[in-house]
Design brief:
238 residues; mainly alpha; 10 helices; globular
Length: 238
Amino acid sequence: MLNTRTSSASVAAEAGSASHQLALQQLTDSALPTGAFAHSLGFETYIDRGLVSDEASFSTWLSAFVGQQLTYSDGLAIRFLYEGADVGELDAHLSAQLLPRQLREASTKMGGRLIEIGSEVFPSAELEAYRALVTTGRAAGHQPLAFAVVARSLGVPFEEALAAYLFAAVTTLTQNAVRAIPLGQNAGQRVLRKAHDDVAAAAERAAHLTLDDFGAVSPGLEISQMRHEWQRARMFMS
C-alpha cells in the first residue's frame, strides 16, 4: 500500500508539473499574439548605424541586452513580484525607469495584450486585480509584470518562469533580427544557442540584485532606443 500511495503522489506531482509546463509554453510561444514581432527594442538603431550587420554583431548586441535591460529591468520586476511586492508599485517603478518613450509603449502594449489574453485563457484573482488597476489608470500594464502575475497564479516556480521569460524575449528578438538584418534561419538558431549562457547568467544575477539595482541599464542601450523614434526609415515600432 505504501508503494501505491507513493506512486499516486508521484503521478499527481508529475501531472501538476506537466500542467504548468504546458501553460508556460503557451505563454512564451512566439505565436502568442502580443505584438512582439513589431519591436526591435533598440537593435534596429544599431543596424541603421552599421554597428549590427551580421550574426556575430547581433549576437554581441543581444548578449549586452540580456545582461543589462532584461536583467536589471524585466528580470528584477518578475523576481520582486514573485517575492510579494505590490504590483502597482512595481508598475510605477517600471514606468519611471523605462526612459525611452518607445520602450515604455512597447512594454505596455505587449503587457496589455498579455493581460487580455491571460484574462480569457488563464483567469485568476491576481490577474483581475492587476487588470483593474490598468483599466482605471492606476497602472500602465507592463509586459514582465503581466507575465509574472499569470505565471505565479499558475504555480510556475520562479526560476522556471524567469528563465522562460528571458529566453522568450531572446527568441523573439532573434526572429526579428533574422528578418531585419537579414540573417539566415540557421544563423538565428546559432545565435539562440549562444544565448543560453547569457540567459542562465541573467537569471542567476537577477536572483541576487536589490531594489537599488532596479533600472541600472547601460546608457548606450537607452540612447539607441531613444534614437529609434527619429530614424528616417524603420521596420519596427521600437
